[in-house]
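Need a sequence for this fold. Nothing fancy.
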């Protein structure tokens, strides 16, 4: 049973993103009020704001946590054309500061000429690597060569996507069988440009990212994109938030020969498609086992999707933004129009609803 609970986030404008840390006990929010807030969960389950600071000179679109292996590190991106990396420092210089923490800006990434629309840390096995995307259609990948010195970041790659970029997602697979891969979504409203999702793969021979696939059936603006945790699968699962929710399965095709140096080719299958929000969908998020997917849309609801033993996807819960319950008949009706081909695996959640000055939470 999922329960919705609201907290007064005290942002002075729209909240654009909510991000949990690896353990789910810390949360960061960002807003058009140009600030980021950090929240900690108490033993009683209450969320308390433990830090708040102005981060940018424009709306802050996204905020994301690095893996805790690298410390307490956040990245944010903004309409002001920059991305920033922040580190939490626990004061120990004197008795008064002992145990108190504060966040320090370690670097500002200023390569973009337009709004930076998303920022994501790579999976930890790749090291401390950060990707940004911007409205000028460029994905930039940075690396911190010394994880003890977060003021030094080098620009490793620039990927030109030709379309305005709105969101990115790293493939979390740590298998040596899968090269590093990043999916890019575009919110370009020009319908003549098909294929609003592009997938890029790292090539060890050329030491560059090359386009491996374009999802040509995605023709509407894409607001969010999320690879499912891999858990040893031979294929990849990708959720997309556009005018509806879509789940794609990407099956790598065998290479013609072991010496082939081009990017992997994929068989792309549409596993499920839901239009139950009846509105634009803004966020999709998986749980850690990829058995549950959460989506939030302009209908003010967070919807939870799960595949049953027959691999048919159904809605297992609907949470309204005000915390009020939704009757079971509307939940079951929402599960219609979600057929999955046999052979597809379970997939899954972990989302929140942003876009108001309050934040809606769902226990994981």
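Here you go.
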């Amino acid at each position: 049973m999922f329960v919705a609970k609201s907290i007064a986030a005290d942002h002075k404008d729209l909240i654009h993103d909510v991000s949990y840390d690896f353990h789910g006990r810390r949360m960061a929010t960002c807003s058009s009020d140009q600030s980021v807030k950090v929240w900690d969960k108490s033993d009683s389950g209450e969320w308390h704001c433990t830090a708040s600071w102005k981060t940018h000179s424009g709306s802050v679109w996204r905020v994301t946590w690095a893996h805790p292996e690298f410390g307490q590190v956040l990245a944010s991106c903004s309409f002001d054309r920059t991305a920033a990396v922040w580190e939490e420092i626990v004061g120990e210089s004197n008795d008064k500061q002992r145990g108190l923490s504060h966040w320090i800006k370690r670097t500002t990434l200023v390569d973009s000429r337009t709004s930076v629309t998303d920022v994501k840390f790579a999976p930890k096995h790749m090291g401390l690597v950060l990707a940004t995307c911007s409205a000028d259609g460029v994905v930039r990948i940075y690396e911190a060569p010394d994880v003890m010195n977060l003021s030094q970041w080098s620009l490793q790659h620039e990927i030109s996507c030709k379309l305005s970029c709105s969101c990115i997602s790293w493939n979390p697979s740590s298998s040596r069988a899968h090269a590093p891969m990043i999916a890019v979504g575009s919110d370009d409203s020009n319908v003549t440009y098909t294929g609003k999702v592009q997938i890029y793969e790292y090539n060890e021979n050329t030491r560059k990212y090359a386009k491996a696939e374009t999802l040509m059936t995605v023709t509407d603006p894409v607001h969010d994109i999320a690879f499912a945790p891999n858990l040893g699968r031979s294929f990849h699962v990708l959720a997309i938030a556009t005018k509806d929710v879509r789940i794609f399965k990407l099956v790598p095709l065998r290479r013609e020969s072991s010496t082939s140096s081009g990017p992997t080719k994929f068989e792309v299958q549409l596993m499920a498609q839901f239009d139950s929000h009846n509105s634009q969908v803004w966020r999709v998020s998986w749980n850690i086992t990829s058995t549950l997917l959460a989506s939030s849309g302009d209908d003010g609801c967070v919807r939870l999707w799960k595949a049953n033993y027959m691999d048919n996807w159904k809605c297992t819960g609907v949470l309204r933004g005000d915390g009020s319950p939704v009757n079971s008949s509307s939940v079951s009706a929402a599960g219609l129009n979600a057929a999955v081909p046999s052979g597809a695996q379970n997939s899954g959640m972990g989302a929140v609803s942003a876009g108001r000055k309050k934040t809606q939470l769902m226990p994981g």
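For context: The longest strand covers residues 101-109.
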